[in-house]
Amino acid sequence: MIARKTMASATFLIAFMAVITSWGGLFLDGLYRDNALVVAAWQGNDIVTLFIVVPLLLASLAFSLRGSKRARLFWMGSLWYMAYNYMFYLFGAAFNEFFLLYAALLVLSIYALIFALIQTDALEFSRSFDEKLPYKPVSAFMLFFAILLGGMWIGLSLLFVFTDEMHESISQTGHPTAVVFGVDLSLLIPSLVISGILLWRKKVWGPILSAVVLIKATAYGLALINMTVISYRDTGAVDPFLSLWIALTIGCAVSLIFLVRNIGSGSKKAGSGTA
């Protein structure tokens, strides 16, 4: 009971701080001190966080506390979104009044997700997945996603190494660092690969981790698309990767549907029963 109350309290605190930072980003003039393109991207992200992810986080927590396994996946996926999202703000946004909130959101989201995973009985949870779960098609998409995006960021990084040519996705931000490359290569790509392999091998953690990763990827895909729209509206800049973001977001959403629709209340065991 104490653990449930603690996790609920942590989730409410994360949601509260995310509302403050997102609302402030949208309505406090001068909060963001980046160039116009980056400010537009932050605000596009804030819209999705405030109006989609925060409600999803709170609703999924409520249903999870009532025993819903689907809701527990969406709750953990929303926590993963928060951790990934606020790493960008913490390390990518020009220093502003919300710096400490960004740090608190990153740390609290990471530890909340860790404790949520620790408290998940993967073997018992896996019995709720239908035996018709499309392990390999979903896994193949996730590994394709990882190879495609990771290959792009590695290729563009090597391009600079050998030609001294910096891609516009970095230069147009006005920042000296490639935060997107760094966060994706250290967090997103490994999470796709690890969960995808576990899913392919039908391990009990495979469907759980894959759903969490896909929930985050779908939500952040919506944020990327919205960032692109807002950036184009405010600056006229066109993201050359927009069609890719749309395709990957659709792929993540479809893969996620294939996973969560195969969660039932039966006792069929998914996977080999090993971690």
TrEMBL record:
Residues spanning the membrane: 7-27, 47-66, 73-92, 98-118, 138-162, 178-200, 207-230, 242-260
Which residues does UniProt call coiled coil?
Answer: none
Keyword annotations from UniProtKB, A to Z: Membrane, Transmembrane, Transmembrane helix
Q: Would the keyword Lipoprotein be found if you checked this record's keyword annotation? A: no
Q: Does the keyword Transmembrane apply?
A: yes
> By what name is this protein known?
Uncharacterized protein
Species, as recorded: Planococcus chinensis
